Task: structure prediction
Amino acid sequence: MTKRAIAVTGSNGFVGARLVEKFVEHGFRVVCLVRPESRPRRSLPDGAEQQPIPPEAADFSALIARISPRAVINLATYGVAPQETDWTTMLDANAGALTRLLVACAPTHTRVIHAGSCSEYARIEKPSRATEDWPCHPATPYGAAKLGATEWGRALSGRLGVPFVTLRLFGIYGPGESPHRIIPAVSSRLRRGERVELSPGDQVRDLTYVDDVADAFQRAVETEFEAGAVYNVCSGDGVTIRSVSEKVCSALGATLDRLIFGAYPMRPGEDLWLVGDATRYEAATGWKAKTTLDAGIQKTLQASAEVAA
Result:
């Protein structure tokens, strides 16, 4: 029996890499669509392969037709990492890349599941939890580029007849996360016996373990949605950066005095409260974040220790 196929862009990223593994584990054949200039991954799980994206639109459409995927998951983006500040690239890697993907999927009407971002929303004030009806007024160029991609994708997909849904992702953590993020940054310094200088840590974030996010995308593949629908994917629970840091410290058996809160000021314009509401996605798919923060931190630290060994 031929395995069901899924195509993924952005498979070299933190979420994309885990998503590929999870889809393979669930019996899918996964095709990772990569830019021709991208460095190939050192290894892919059995059941996954890489295909360069052809520069010509007709060739890209032909590739999608050959793969015949149940859906294409678009995780490709630019602007998340602090060093990603080329504004032209930011716009093209978000809205431009999605345009090329939708055009390629048009002849076969292949469904596109697009990864949006909580950065698309206007500032969320405590104690509100942003639903999908929350105003969109991004405070950053990255958020604006993501919102532009979402809205452009909704309009263009309708014109092209391509089924299109956006999953707006909030904070994601887990094994393989970028070193500058809070859990790997704190844990790496503590393991080296260093003190960790931090901001006051009062920022509240909504964090979801990466495996739960991968499950959210799998649910999207199996569910029929209204054209152009947008859904939040988040835990719905707020936690301070201070609390996350202390949990990491305790899990590693280090004393809390190793954490120096207030050594750095908050970044200018940084949100103090960023928490979402995924009730609508739960109602549509039955998905809900299952991994507790304590359990997720333990899994993340164990995985990083195994890599270091």
The CA atoms of residues 140 and 200 lie 22 Å apart. The longest strand covers residues 111-117.
